Here is the input.
Amino acid sequence: MYKLDNKLASHLAVKQGVYYFVRRVPSDLVGYYRSTRVSYSLRTKSQRVANARARGATHKLEEYWYHLRLRDSPIPCSYLVLDNMQRSNEELGPTLSEALELYLRLKGQGKSVTFHQAATRACSYLTAICDGKRLGLYTRADANSFRDYLIRKGLSGSSITRIFNSILSVLNFSISEHALLFKNPFSGVFYDRKLGVQTRFTLPLKDLAKVKAQCQTYDDELRWAVALVADTGMRLAEAVGLAREDLCIETDIPYVRVRLHSWRRLKTAGSERTIPLVGVALWAATRLVNNNNGTKFCFPQYNKSKTTNANSASAALNKWLKNYVSNGSTMHSFRHSIRDRLRAVECPSDIIDQIGGWTTSGVGQSYGEGYPLEVCHKWMMKALG
Here is the structure.
């Protein structure tokens, strides 16, 4: 047993020459412990060292016990704490609708219709489940309920991600603009991002050859669109939104310019590019240039309104395409295919990114004007010629 010595500092005991710290647990805190006494070796036979360690242990225990007692005691001056109803509107920030209006007015300038639609739709979903209250009144429980609501609607993980990104952008912008002091409760909400996401296949080479042959057999406007996408890797919206003057075939190296138009926006700033025309893409471009349809558009049937109707083109072309592919590929599969075909000839990845309009990581990639048309043409000929 421990030998207590009145000559020692408080809470010290000796056992076989080794000093121990011994302290009774206060009666009001016994419920937090398995024993009524705290004891452990101070691992020293020096009284001076033991005294110093015992004082340190005493201080730590007193602090810990103080915090335990706070758990069971009422909050000091709790009558002074404001609840949400008493907090000022300035502290709570704008309502969701006001935040959306500010976001679209300042951040939406020059952005596409889809940008405005995406933000508006996301906020309407949130209003349906949590009401359009002031931003400071939203809680993590609201964010989790919103997630569950979107899952019940049968949305895929990628769709939920886009909606949450819109909500985050709207709220973060207002929180920053109004210098609000609370955290965005919609940040970091967990859900399965792969939920319901369909795999996008690369078009097998045998199917690709079959599709390109069918395009030349049909030899009409729809098939020209397919052929143009097949050997350029353009997004379908980029292709069907082309103006006739975007196709430049009377040059040493024929090319297509993918650029911003009032009727068709581009997905990213890096999407604006020049792509050499080779293979069936050159054939399709020649057919389009020589086709006098009386308009400035390459595909007027998808440009009858103020914006290019890429969804209609996608539905029509995917329906036709499924007759000639074996693995459920779609028009978007041509973008996967072009990347694989360029990889197969060991084309540098930053050239592939430039041809496809993909974002290339790294600060250095933003310097300079990119690769000249001749270099891109050389690699396109190796892969597709």
User: Anything to note?
Assistant: The chain has a mean pLDDT of 88. The beta strands are 3-4, 12-15, 18-24, 37-41, 247-248, 255-258, 273-276. Residues 47-71 form the longest helix (25 residues).
